[in-house]
Design goal:
Number of strands: 28
CATH architecture of the largest domain: 2-Layer Sandwich
Largest sheet: 9 strands, antiparallel
Helix content: 25-40%
Number of domains: 5
Radius of gyration: 24 Å
Shape: globular
Length: 521
């Protein structure tokens, strides 16, 4: 059982203990169980109410017996809650996608979160308790700073990469607003694939061999010298779609022309990175980084291709699951030592220390990982599963990290697997319809629905407004159970223009089935 101790300097205020789904009340040192069970998921809301009434906040987790309470074995997790009204914060999440909905959902549950604002948010974020959508233009950094001052925002979490590359975190930090997200210069790890690859070369970070090009003829000559398969990347931001894995020379030449000549990705394709093809299994890995300090999160596996069996063009992501079975303890250590820490130290040495969420896209083969790409924020849709599995106060963790106290942060994770199915509009990633009505969202009971490309029509109905529209995230004892729960929820949603892959998590499920078969023999 998990016991949470709540201490307060105010007496005889009634403190509360939370034991799984029941409250234990404590007054003047006497403990008793409340006979009424609590609906799962309401616990943090109750603690927030206690905080409002008694000025108590969760400060940090401890590993010790529950003093003055029932007998608890040493090592049980508990949260110490100390008196402090000043540490209560208003939070601003910047963004409008499924990633930002999941961040708002998770961060707003914190007992130290007084209120959470989402700019601009979406129809899903506006339905979350303690969350308000705000219509400020995040491209106007002065407006964001002014809003933070007016609302006394104590923590800003920037979801997407575009505002980070544009320097939003710089301007907020300069105004004294604690912000989780890297500076514009540090964000070049994602904003420029050429920059990222050069950092890898300079600081001995394992990655694919590469060269950079701005001239189509020279790029094609290099491709011809290496042969196919080969990878052609637009160096700039292309919404996760600027990578072509060319299986033939003709495909590679066409990718060069599309990016450098036809400008299908605009200025993002002004420079290309052409690199050797790596085979293996892709894994997404995340860490909270502040300068040279880093706290690992957990792994996930994304499904980039639009079609079942990983066929068709790449997308921003059609689904994901966590943890990734391809990641083991040995690879974890290698990734932290050779990729995360070397990147952090390299950026610090370059005079652009990284503060924020560092995403390492990995290719794993023969027990070794190589870096495919860095992103400077949570992945989408990987973030949704991470938020569902996170069993710690992420608001507190990020706030402490902005205060230079990342070394104090320890995050705990639920043992369950999480799986997210992306429901997209038919035609995505090409042309797709908008404005079709979505219903049945309230019928979903086996998963959490995170909104992405949604809006409301004049009648107040939820309608599609983007390519990736809904993210359906479920937990299970393993990936197979999470997969079943997620697809059960998908089938409860009524949307005529929906498209989704039917095989999210197939690698992990195949592993489970193979292990079961082997055990049977």
């Amino acid at each position: 059982r998990k016991f949470y101790q709540i201490s307060t300097a105010f007496t005889p205020i009634v403190s509360s203990y939370l034991c799984q789904d029941k409250f234990v009340t404590c007054k003047q040192g006497c403990l008793s169980f409340d006979a009424k069970p609590i609906v799962k998921g309401h616990s943090l809301s109750y603690l927030r109410a206690c905080h409002s009434a008694a000025s108590i906040i969760v400060m940090h987790s401890l590993r010790a017996p529950c003093v003055g309470g029932p007998s608890v074995a040493h090592g049980r997790r508990r949260l110490q809650v100390l008196a402090s009204s000043s540490s209560n914060v208003n939070v601003l999440v910047v963004g409008s996608g499924g990633r930002e909905h999941s961040l708002a959902w998770k961060l707003s549950q914190s007992p130290i979160c007084n209120h959470l604002y989402c700019a601009p948010g979406n129809p899903g974020t506006e339905t979350e308790p303690n969350v308000t959508n705000v219509g400020i233009n995040v491209a106007k950094h002065g407006d964001v700073v002014q809003f933070c001052r007016e609302k006394n925002v104590g923590l800003v979490v920037v979801g997407p990469e575009v505002p980070l590359v544009a320097g939003l975190a710089d301007d907020l930090q300069a105004a004294g607003v604690p912000t989780w997200g890297p500076s514009a210069r540090a964000a070049q790890l994602e904003g420029s694939k050429a920059f990222m690859k050069d950092i890898c070369r300079k600081y001995n970070i394992p990655t694919a061999a590469y060269e950079k090009f701005t001239d189509p003829a020279r790029a094609k000559a290099f491709i011809k010298s290496l042969g196919a398969p080969i990878v052609v990347k637009a160096s700039g931001l292309a919404a996760g779609k600027g990578v072509v894995v060319a299986r033939t020379l003709e495909e590679a030449f066409q990718a060069v022309d599309d990016m450098l000549v036809n400008k299908v990705f605009g200025n993002a394709g002004d420079e290309l990175v052409i690199e050797e093809f790596l085979d293996g299994e892709e894994v997404s890995f995340f860490a909270l980084v502040d300068g040279e300090a880093a706290v690992p999160l957990v792994s996930a596996q994304d499904h980039k291709a639009v079609g079942d069996g990983d066929t068709g063009p790449n997308t921003g992501g059609m689904g994901a699951y966590s943890p990734a079975p391809a990641m083991n303890d040995t690879i974890f250590k290698q990734v932290m030592d050779e990729i995360i820490y070397r990147t952090a130290r390299g950026m610090a040495a370059e005079g652009a220390p990284f503060r924020g969420t560092l995403f390492a896209g990995l290719m794993i083969k023969d027990g070794k990982a190589k870096l495919l790409e860095h992103n400077v924020r949570f992945g989408d849709p990987e973030c949704q599963g991470l938020m569902a599995r996170c069993d710690s106060d992420l608001t507190e963790a990020m706030l402490r990290a902005t205060q230079g106290k990342l070394d104090d942060v320890k995050l705990l994770w639920k043992p369950e697997a999480a799986l997210t199915v992306v429901m997209a509009a038919k035609g995505y990633p090409g042309n797709y319809p908008k404005g079709s009505i979505i219903s049945g969202l309230d019928q979903v009971t086996t998963a959490k629905v995170f909104h992405a490309g949604t809006s409301r029509n004049a009648a107040g109905q939820v309608v599609s407004s983007g390519g990736r529209v809904l993210n359906i995230t479920a937990l299970g004892k393993d990936v197979a159970e999470a997969q079943a729960q997620a697809y059960k929820a998908v089938k409860q949603i009524e949307w005529a223009d929906a498209y989704y892959r039917s095989d999210i998590g197939w690698r992990a499920v195949a592993r489970l089935q193979a292990a079961t078969t082997a055990k049977g023999h």
